[in-house]
Amino acid sequence: SQQGEEDPQALSIQEGENATMNCSYKTSINNLQWYRQNSGRGLVHLILIRSNEREKHSGRLRVTLDTSKKSSSLLITASRAADTASYFCATGSGGSNYKLTFGKGTLLTVNP
Amino acid sequence: DSGVTQTPKHLITATGQRVTLRCSPRSGDLSVYWYQQSLDQGLQFLIQYYNGEERAKGNILERFSAQQFPDLHSELNLSSLELGDSALYFCASSTSSGGATGEQFFGPGTRLTVL
C-alpha cells in the first residue's frame, strides 16, 4: 500500500512560476525524501528532510515537513521547462527493516 | 549518471518464462534495493540486500527472488511470468542500511514486457 500520497496528481504551470506539490503520509517516519523522474527513466534524489527538521532548502527547492499533520510540501521556485517531470515523495520508516515507500507522484508540466 | 547500472535495458518474453535482471551498485555502496514500477501499482519496494544478506522485504511475490553476490552486484529472478508482471524494474543502491539510510541512487531500469 502507498504510504505517501501526492497532491495534486498533475500540475501545469508557465515557466517562471512557482510549483508547489504536497505529500501526506500515514505512519511515523525517520525521514521524508523527494525524488524526480523524467519519463520512463530512473529516479533522481532531490532532497531529504529528517523527522526532526521543519524546513530545508536546496537551490530552487524548498521542502517543509509537518509531522503533526503528517504532511510535506515541495516548492520549486522560478520553474523552467527542464523541470517537467514526475515528482515523488518517499517516506523512510522502520529500524532494521527500513523501507522507502513511494507515493504515486505529481506530474509537473512547465510550459515555455 | 547515478553510477548504478542495470542490464538488460529491455526484455520481452512470454508468459510462463523465467528472466534474470542484473544490477551493479555504485562503487562502495553495500545496500541494493529492487523496485517495481507499473501504471496501476506505482513504485513498489520489493526487497533490499545489504552486504550479501537480505535486510528488508516489501511486496515481493513468491515467484520472484533476489540475491546479492560477494562482489555486491545483485540479480532479481522472476519466474512463471504473467502478463501483470510487465513493468519497469529499478535497482537502487545506498551506502548504508537500516534507519540511517538516506539517499538512494537509482539505475536506469529494465523494462520487462510479458506477452
What would you say about this model in short?
With 112 residues, chain A is mostly beta strands. Chain A has strands at residues 5-7, 10-14, 19-24, 31-37, 43-50, 55-58, 61-66, 71-76, 85-93, 99-102, 106-111. In chain B, strands 2, 4, 5, 6, 9, 10 and 11 form a seven-stranded mixed β-sheet that branches.
Overview of this protein structure:
The complex is a heterodimer of chains A (about 110) and B (about 120). Chain A has about 110 residues and is an all-beta fold. Chain A has no helices and eleven strands. Chain A has strands at about 5, 10-15, 20-25, 30-35, 45-50, 55-60, 60-65, 70-75, 85-95, 100, 105-110. In chain A, strands 2, 4, 5, 9, 10 and 11 form a six-stranded mixed β-sheet that branches. A five-stranded antiparallel β-sheet of chain A has the order 1-3-8-7-6, with no helix packed on it. The N and C termini of chain A lie far apart (about 35 Å). Chain B is mainly beta. The mean pLDDT of chain B is about 90. The interface of A and B includes residues 43, 44, 45, 88 and 105 of A.
- Amino-to-carboxy terminus distance of chain B: 31 Å
Helix content of chain B: under 10%
What overall geometry of chain B do the principal axes of the alpha carbons give?
globular
What proportion of the residues of chain B form beta strands (DSSP E)? over 45%
Order of helices and strands of chain A: EEEEEEEEEEE
Taking the sheet with the most strands of chain B, its summary is: 7 strands, mixed
Summarize this structure as a short list of keywords or feature phrases:
heterodimer; A: 112 residues; mainly beta; 6-stranded mixed sheet; 11 strands; 57% strand; B: 115 residues; 7-stranded mixed sheet
Strand and helix layout:
The complex is a heterodimer of chains A (112) and B (115).
Chain A: E1 5-7, E2 10-14, E3 19-24, E4 31-37, E5 43-50, E6 55-58, E7 61-66, E8 71-76, E9 85-93, E10 99-102, E11 106-111
Parallel strand pairs in A: 2-11
Antiparallel strand pairs in A: 1-3, 3-8, 4-5, 4-9, 6-7, 7-8, 9-10, 9-11
Chain B: E1 5-7, E2 10-13, E3 19-24, E4 31-38, E5 42-50, E6 53-57, E7 64-68, E8 74-78, E9 87-94, E10 105-106, E11 110-114
